[in-house]
Amino acid sequence: GHAMSGFLNYLYARMYEGELWLRFEDTDPRKVRPEYYESFRKGYRWLGIEWDHEKNNSDDMELFYKYAEQLIKAAKAYVCTCPPEKIRKLRALGEECEHRAQGVDENLHLWNEMLAGAFREGEAILRLIGDMKHQNTTLRDPALFRIIEHPHPLTGNRYRVWPLYDFAVSIEDHLCGVTHVLRTSEFALRDELQNYIRSLLGMDRNPIYIEYSRFEFKGTPVSKRKLRAILEAGMAAGWDDPRFPTIEGIKRRGILPEAIREFTITQTGFSYAKREYDWSLLFAINRRILDPRARRFFFVPNPVKLIVRNAPKLTIEAPYHPEKKELGVRRLTAAGEFYIAGEDSAKIKIGEIIRLKYLMNVRITGKEGEAVSAEFSGTEVKKDVKIIQWVPVGESIEVKVLVPGPLYLNGDINPESLKIVTGVGETAIKDIAVDEIVQFERFGFCRRDSEDEYVFIKAHD
Ligand SMILES: [Zn+2]
Q: Which of 43, 63, 72, 236 is exposed most, by the fewest CB atoms within 10 A?
């Protein structure tokens, strides 16, 4: 979501020779963690998004207070000490509370008390005088400031009265000279409120809002709330979980920034209708970009032994890529004992001839328990023979691949959304750098995830 929104903003800014702001909406200290800022910057940099300006809303607290006082003095805001349930109820009914009638002096006094710490969290808010009967309920005397007793990663305990999103954004869009806002449509109702706040403060230029439906992928919740619930239930270790639709998550899965860019341009648009994208579309683009450049390796999942009688001892050079000779070769030495995939072993029949890729043909002679036996059947390439990947016994390493699946299936949490496939791989796998995305032949494209172990994450087939 952030990735695609970021791209749309970036591309439109470039297309119209505009300038792009990266602004951190960080006026809810409970929701902002110290790593929030850098993880956004890192993610956008990785995507190739360049921004021209950057600021944090929390830098302007004194200014927000000044504008709050201006509204109070103009009799456009009041301090309300109603309990939250009462406020909710009256807003739904379209009725005013007794605090709306307070005089300016009384409101100024209470506001200063709020700032000075006379009220605890939840005991008082500053509300806009809107219209309690307005069709657009965001205009029914919305809260502009509330007390949050929680340290902020940038300002610590210096402030306890924090502006709400709409108030901060109204002012910041003006200060930043924002002319166009491209954002998802769940904010659509707020435009009117933000324009109204600006008009009360004498800020006469409103941005043009371009809204589009939120980017959702099948089986993947996009809301922070749902993802946090999955984290808190211990189903995922962090925001960079490869099943998550976060920038860190898709990066870790092995999706390339170019693929996200192409997907955003070709598949999305300024549509108001809710659309659910299929991951397979993004994977297809990613695969097309990776295919000509990813090195190939042999990985054998759920290995079974294959013993070949009369097999000569051979050393072969297998290309890292069938077409890109410049990617080089790796050397494989094999005698008569191999690992092959459990799935292949289950399917092959006695009497069948199969080819061990780049090496030799074998005729299957028996399947006894956990092992398959065969006899050597020449090295020449034969037509219509099944070709499988293999790893020599004695020259193998243990490899683990995490296979992410959908977090939700038919609306329920999918208990098997992350599968772990273990197997063996050829020793050349040791040279794969962390973050390199390779193709494990007949298995899929995988990104090396760990420095110390041979752990990979499967991006897709
Ligand atoms: Zn009240």
A: 63
Q: What are the tokens at 308?
A: 């070949």
Q: Residue 71 sits in a domain of what CATH number?
A: 3.40.50.620
Domain that holds residue 63: 52-212
Please indicate, yes or no, if residue 197 is contained in any of the structural domains: yes
The ipTM is 0.99
Domain count, the chain: 1
E-strand stretches of 230-328: 275-277, 296-297, 299-301, 303-309, 314-319
C-alpha of residue 109 to centroid of ligand 1, in Å: 15
Q: What is the pLDDT of residues 97-120, one digit of tens each?
A: 999 999 999 999 999 999 999 999
* Centre of ligand 1 from the C-alpha of residue 98, in Å: 6
Q: How far is the CA of 126 from the centre of ligand 1 (A)?
A: 10
Q: How far is the CA of 100 from the centre of ligand 1 (A)?
A: 7
74 conformational bin, left if phi > 0, alpha if psi -120 to 50, beta if neither: alpha
Q: Does residue 215 have a pLDDT over 80?
A: no
Does some domain include residue 424? no
